[in-house]
Amino acid sequence: MADVMERQTIPVAGLPCDAEGPVFREPWEAQAFAMALALHARGVFTWPEWAATLGAEIKRAQAAGDPDTGETYYRHWLNALERLVAEKGVADAATLARYRDAWDHAADRTPHGTPIELRPEDFR
């Protein structure tokens, strides 16, 4: 038996890759990915629920004209995550919208390359 098994990567259409496989375009994509895994690990939703919700979000986006090139994949991931969080009662849609707006406000005032921090005034 070989000490090291070679890892084969399969390219995912439209997703950037390096020698190890698919990579994230932006930090928020990695954060959304990690949140979904953490919520699943805590039992908030099952993996079949996740797959069905993500699939439904992708189909909804395609029906609305998304060309499905892979560039919007994590937007669908985020929409699916927010939908499940609301459906499971972790946070309601109004709370999610409030934080989304606060995050946008914080991002607008933050210089490029600087970590974004939410402040109380971002929620106004």
TrEMBL record:
Residues 19-102 form the Nitrile hydratase beta subunit-like N-terminal domain. It comes from Enhydrobacter aerosaccus. Gene3D superfamilies: Nitrile hydratase, beta subunit. InterPro entries: CN_hydtase_beta-like_N (IPR049054), CN_hydtase_beta_C (IPR042262), Elect_transpt_acc-like_dom_sf (IPR008990), Nitrile_Hydratase_acc_put (IPR023808). The lineage of its organism: Bacteria, Pseudomonadati, Pseudomonadota, Alphaproteobacteria, Hyphomicrobiales. This is Nitrile hydratase accessory protein. Pfam families: NHase_beta_N.
